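Aim 2 progress update. The chain analyzed this quarter is reproduced below.
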Amino acid sequence: MQDDATDMLVYLMQQAFDGAQDGDAEHQALLPNLRAVSPEDWDARPSGGERSIRDIALHVGGCKYMYADHMFATGRLEWTSPIVDPWPHSEPHMREVIDWMEAGHRKLMRHVRELGTAEMTALRGAPWGEQRETRWLLSVLLQHDLYHAGEVNHIRSIRHDDRWAFLR
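Predicted structure tokens:
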């Protein structure tokens, strides 16, 4: 049963993922940063780096499915499960990955919206097999989206003009 605490958590998780509820924060959220990626930047790796923006997006999307399953469902998904790793031998188009990631986020958020405050301290499964408090796991997911949003933004910026807009 959703309550004020759950409403706040849902709001914050949505802000971190897509920023759709507050135009001022959009540039800090994951999806706006991904949508701003050019086709040339999608697969590019920064100098000395191993991960492309595509790799980061696939990782974040896979986590959405893994956490939803391990926290709220069977806990049987593995990192190689087809829903978690749908393109093991190909390089998917950016739109495909974003659509898949959004579907994983919606799946996760359906479960989160059903939680009540009393359930936030309940132990749930983490993808690595440990049991942790629900609120801790959801905090990790929120921070995960913001961390990787910054990473995507940084990769984009070092491939182009990295100066702050007001300094250009």
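The longest helix spans residues 134-159. The two ends are 49 Å apart (CA to CA). These observations will guide the mutagenesis experiments scheduled for the next reporting period.
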